[in-house]
Amino acid sequence: MTRVMVILFLFTVYSQAMVQQLSREFLIDLANKFGTPLYVYHAEKIKEQYERLLKAFKGSGARFFYAGKALTNINVLKYIREIGCQVDCSSINEVLLALRAGFTPDQILYTSSNIAFAEIEAAQGYGVSINIDSISNLEKFGKKFGHSYPVGIRLRPNIMAGGNLKISTGHQDSKFGIPLEQIDQVVRVMKDTRVCVNALHIHTGSEIKDVEVFAKGIEVLFDIAGNFPDLEIIDLGGGFKVAYREGEAVTDIERLGQKVAEEFDMFEKKTGKRLKVWFEPGKFLVSEAGYFITRVNVLKESATAVFAGVDSGLNHFIRPMFYGAYHIIENLSNPHGPLRTYNVVGNICETDTFAENRPLPQINEGDLLMFRNAGAYGFEMSSNYNARFKPAEVLVRGGEGYLIRRRDVFEDLLRNQLEVL
Fold first, then answer.
1. 362-392 pLDDT, tens per residue?
2. Which of 124, 168, 176, 306 measures 20 to 30 Å from 130, CA to CA?
3. Which is nearest to 242 in space by CA: 292, 282, 202?
4. Which domains does the chain have, with CATH numbers?
5. 8 Å CB contact between 92 and 119
6. Three-state SS for 40?
7. CA dist., res. 75 & res. 396, Å (int)
8. What is the pLDDT of residues 86-141, one digit of tens each?
9. Residues with catalytic annotation?
């Protein structure tokens, strides 16, 4: 076999191993069956992303906790557990969802911000791993539990990183974590209360494509590790960048895995101590597995733009408005039509623009438009604003689409209201 033939063979094997995107015809069938707007999640794509992480970080033995806040549907959580991933929870209710999905306490990490101590006490009662993000709550925890229940602390590393300021969480003006310059106060609390700190946690932001940002975070934590005699775990959070545009730069997961292994090996040689490494990927696991399908209600023309108004809005998919996020949009109904320029807008009584001046195959009223990379922070951030119904969700597994959340009905709008007048 020639060298060229070997390369072609390996490329074919690799391509076949990759999960194929859901076809246009299949997505149209789902939209016709379940109605629009509709969220669709591809289970096998989630599994592929997780297995890629395991392979890339094999050298460091990293442990991964899915950041459940990205998408908390109970069926998705159950699938995450089934493929062997753990879960990170940002509230006590997410902890309860994780337990309901079948995760055991040792598979659950609870990392919340600026919450009442009572919630931390509740998490402790369920026996899950806890990261505390304030000196005040750390002191309360130490006074109540002393050395009996190890906890982690979330630190603010003063590193500016992430796709934009709204998703940058490690800079000096961020609300998240205990500032590095307050380490002396942390040490004082440890001494006074005997609280056992076994993990150091940082999360610098989302959509981080530069491997060196993670390396800098590791360096920051290793520099202060000597202050923590019970230290066992370095938790580097998440924030891996995925592509929202064709050809967009992403986190080099394989390079990052190699870098992490090298850094932790060097630390072990220097100190004689082997630390565990944890990550909390959310978007990386579910973003590319998600599709959001809408139907075009109306076309409007002005002097400067053609508006394609769809049957959704910021109440269902707020990322473009809240983060300025770009999502590839496809015309499922007319994929080969001549290109025209459109402003894709919603049906909410706010300015809810999904895309401006976007070249798309000619759109007609009734066409189905599909947004890619809609698995993370899509439905999860939805609302009933304008008294609109929340959309349905479908999980595709083994080539079959399963309804995992029904579309709202009118009674859902009144479910928790009390008519006293």
1. 999 999 999 999 999 999 999 999 999 999 9
2. 168
3. 282
4. 43-286 (3.20.20.10), 288-408 (2.40.37.10)
5. yes
6. strand
7. 11
8. 999 999 999 999 999 999 999 999 999 999 999 999 999 999 999 999 999 999 99
9. 349
